[in-house]
Specification:
Layout (H helix, E strand, L loop, with lengths): L2 H10 L13 H5 L3 H5 L2 H14 L5 E2 L6 H6 L2 E3 L7 E3 L6 H6 L10 H14 L5 E6 L1 H9 L1 H10 L1 H25 L4 E5 L8 H7 L1 H11 L5 E6 L8 H5 L5 E4 L5 H5 L7 E6 L1 H6 L3 H15 L5 E5 L9 H17 L1
Parallel strand pairs: 1-4, 4-5, 5-6, 6-7, 7-8, 8-9
Antiparallel strand pairs: 2-3
């Protein structure tokens, strides 16, 4: 599949299929726990297949597990039966520890299993592109340093943060190349949410150049990077985000999607932003219908908008709510 042609077709289509970040809720379709899902490449691939069979999503998108790359570096991970895995503590506390940090080989921790899962999913899903999920460089550095220390470190310990970022970006480049070379994936969705907590000036220094270098190393017409950021400050840093060169952009529900769309050229696909926790997880079919129709009503006048979730849909989200989201998308276009 020519991924760039697929994206151009999505951009030009008057009726656009939704593209939520929807993978973790496969646990209920398979009757398994989150722990069982992340332990098995077969279950991950089967779960993506089951979701593709059930929904009209424009693409199949892997789960956004933002712990897997940090675990490969040696971070401790908390895993439960019903929640997304999380990183515990920090492994980089000084410039010296950053300099001593070893860049792991691709395949360390669960990374090999996740690459296998995408390869299997690509063989099971033939009617739409498959995208892997990866973390962004500053968000990975934040898990290695600790979120609050990474944010303050941009002021107090910039050398430590930059050294950690260099190693994070080096690993991510090779990790994404493995997806590109081994799986048949159309690309990756890169989650860089921690950058959304920075000021625009700090984002330009501590995220933009590292994301741009990764994009330049891996992206071509057959393999795309979709940049995701669900932070509060993304509207103010739209210029920096665009300079990363990613093929498309995905934003969270903490911002006005209408406001962001006005800052992105109309030849670039922009996705978002139905609240994953407030609506998919804790809403009702009626509330998610109303919110989906509201956002589409505000945003679909922009030809480059694609409706999506604001972030990864939580594992325990109701399929009644997920089905109601897709039904609302159909309803909007039917009545347009």
């Amino acid at each position: 599949m020519n991924a760039r042609a697929w994206l151009n077709d999505l951009l030009k289509a008057p009726v656009k299929r939704a593209m939520p970040i929807l993978s973790f809720p496969s646990t209920s379709l398979l009757g398994i726990t989150v722990r069982e899902l992340i332990d098995s490449s077969d279950r991950q691939a089967e779960g993506m297949q089951r979701i593709a069979e059930r929904t009209k999503a424009a693409a199949s998108v892997s789960m956004m597990d933002l712990s897997v790359e940090a675990e490969a570096f040696g971070s401790e991970i908390r895993i439960s039966d019903d929640e997304v895995p999380t990183v515990i503590g920090a492994i980089v506390r000084s410039k010296e520890e950053a300099e001593a940090l070893r860049v792991p080989p691709v395949g360390a921790g669960r990374t090999g299993r996740y690459i296998e899962a995408i390869g299997k999913a690509c063989r099971l899903i033939a009617d739409r592109p498959v995208f892997a999920g990866v973390i962004g460089p500053f968000s990975l550095a934040g898990r290695l340093i600790g979120v609050s220390d990474a944010l303050t470190g941009c002021y107090d310990e910039p050398a430590m943060v930059h050294t950690t970022l260099e190693k994070a970006a080096a690993f991510l480049t090779e990790y994404i190349r493995a997806y590109k070379q081994r799986t048949g994936a159309a690309g990756v969705v890169m989650a860089e949410p921690l950058t959304g907590l920075l000021s625009p000036a700090l984002a330009e220094e501590f995220s933009e150049p590292y994301v741009r270098a990764i994009v330049e190393a891996v992206q071509d017409d057959g393999f795309l990077v979709i940049y995701h950021n669900c932070g509060d400050n993304t509207v103010a840093m739209a210029g920096s985000i665009l300079r990363t060169g990613a093929a498309a952009f995905h934003f969270g529900n903490s911002i006005s999607m209408k406001e962001m769309l006005a800052r992105i050229p109309e030849d670039i696909v922009v996705m978002g932003n139905v609240d994953p926790a407030g609506q998919f997880r804790n809403g009702t079919p009626d509330s998610i219908r109303a919110e989906t129709l509201r956002i589409m009503g505000e945003c679909c006048a922009h030809p480059h908008f694609v409706i999506s979730s604001g972030c990864d849909i939580p594992p325990a989200s109701s399929w009644e709510n997920i089905d109601a989201f897709f039904a609302a998308v159909d309803e909007f276009y039917h009545n347009a």
